[in-house]
């Protein structure tokens, strides 16, 4: 059977998003000129709007390619080992933290002022209770759902039309990490691989969505913890702390690398959608 994901064109998503951004910008400027714009509301609304236009494109593209969304999400043929997948997700969260501290340690040797400024910066977060709840719903529920369908569901299958499934997992995870555009690239890349493995093993995208949500929930909790501006007083203090974190996190890194190597050596990988269609 020909891979139906060949019919999906990602350049159309880019055009769709550009058009969506222009419309949002026009509306935002209009509200600003009218005196109704609120910075916190505008930022939150943009996040929701961003995922909404992505989801609309997903629904439209799947329908045009005659791909069922429920079939793409799939269903497990047997019981899901939630403890295993949650445990691996928590391990990956620790590796992601390790990767950020390791990056900051080595970068601080070359660009100390930039690293100090970054550590001492206070991330802008919603100030109201309603704003915090909406932000958490966005990053814990909406983002994982849309991103998993887009990257593990559509992109992974589209790449596998021309490449091996394992190569497709790596490339789709690289794209996933790159598009987040922050210092967590290594952790997001490894996390993307892990979520793809979950989908391939279980044939159930809900597992990847749930684990993605768990990851984002932990990140969200840290995001909204009270900050302490100027907590890192000196370069030596920063380097000492990041070095200790780097050494302490090595066992988790080794454990995850061993898991990835063992998993990639398996020969029974198959495209989830094809398996689901044949079931």
Give the helix proportion (percent range). Answer: over 70%
Distance between the termini: 14 Å
Kindly state the number of beta strands.
0
Q: Could you name the ranges where pLDDT drops below 50 across 5 or more consecutive residues?
A: none
The biggest beta sheet reads: none
Note the run of SSEs as H and E: HHHHHHHHHHHH
- The secondary-structure class comes to mainly alpha
Total separate domains: 1
Percentage of β-strand residues: under 5%
Q: Total number of helical segments?
A: 12
Shape: globular
Pfam family, one: Rce1-like
Organism: Exobacillus caeni
GO molecular function, one term: endopeptidase activity
Transmembrane segments: 12-31, 43-62, 85-111, 185-202, 214-235, 241-261
Give a brief rundown of this model:
The protein is mostly helical. 76% of the residues lie in helices and 0% in strands. Residues 132-218 form the CAAX prenyl protease 2/Lysostaphin resistance protein A-like domain.
Describe this structure in words.
The protein is mainly α. It has one domain. 76% of the residues lie in helices and 0% in strands. The longest helix has 31 residues, at 129-159. It is globular, with a radius of gyration of 21 Å. 28% of the residues are buried.
